[in-house]
Amino acid sequence: MKDLPRAKIPTGEPFVLASGSPRRAELLRQAGYEFEVCPAADFAECPVDFPETASEMVARLAFQKAVEVARRRKGCFLLAADTLADCQGKILGKPTDRQHAEDMLRLLSGSEHDVYTGVCLWSTGTDRCYLDVVRSRLKMDSLSEETIEQYLAGGRWEGKAGGFGYQDGNDWIHVVENDSESNIVGLPMERLAELLEKFDSLADKVYKSVR
């Protein structure tokens, strides 16, 4: 992606990406950010026993990831994120295997769906954070059996919410609302720049119980 926006880190702390996603790291690099990578532990993505919307879930997961990394990485400015798809009220995360990916693609085929990314910015030096959610709406063409099989065989479904990657250049995915391509890939770079610029006025103190 070209011409991705960039903003200064408001606190001057070292910038840390609290995610192991290679796609998020690549977006930050393309925008010109200098940062370290410190992925959150797997348990930070633990399930809950009460119903959530996709928007609520990505917000919670982004926050949980930031909390986990903030507890062991001091004196830095954290960025944590999580991305999910929502089709017909069904939340779609990363497929666990090929069959799971196929089930997701068949559900999405011929339908509109939403992609949500939760973004959590956290200054561990000043104990302030801000949480935001960005939504994009997509439409997937009706996929033929051949298209589904070719995509699955290529393995590009792995590690991608909904079992597909917008960045793969598929001509069967179309943006309907909010054309932030980076949000669909996993990190809304336009909104990130805005949040960094407004962090001092938006951020709240972090509760001691989550430190």
Structure characterization notes:
The protein is α+β, with helices and mostly antiparallel strands and 211 residues long. It has helices spanning 22-31, 54-70, 98-108, 145-153, 181-185, 189-202, and strands at 15-17, 36-37, 77-87, 90-92, 112-123, 128-140, 173-177, 204-205. Strands 1, 2, 3, 4, 5, 6, 7 and 8 form an 8-stranded mixed β-sheet that branches. It is globular.
Fold topology:
Layout: E1 15-17, H1 22-31, E2 36-37, H2 54-70, E3 77-87, E4 90-92, H3 98-108, E5 112-123, E6 128-140, H4 145-153, E7 173-177, H5 181-185, H6 189-202, E8 204-205
Parallel strand pairs: 1-2, 1-3
Antiparallel strand pairs: 3-4, 3-5, 5-6, 6-7, 6-8
Summarize the structure.
This protein is α+β, with helices and mostly antiparallel strands and 211 residues long. It has six helices and eight strands. It is globular and about 55 Å long.
Structural class: alpha+beta
Provide the residue-averaged pLDDT: 91
Secondary structure tally, helices: 6
pLDDT under 50 segments (min length 5)?
Answer: none
Beta-strand content bin: 15-25%
What sort of overall outline do the alpha carbons produce when their principal axes are compared?
globular
**N-end to C-end Cα span:** 36 Å
Reported for the largest beta sheet, the result is: 8 strands, mixed
Query: SSE string, helix = H, strand = E?
Result: EHEHEEHEEHEHHE
Number of strands: 8
How much helical structure, as a percent, in the residues?
25-40%
The rounded Rg comes to 17 Å
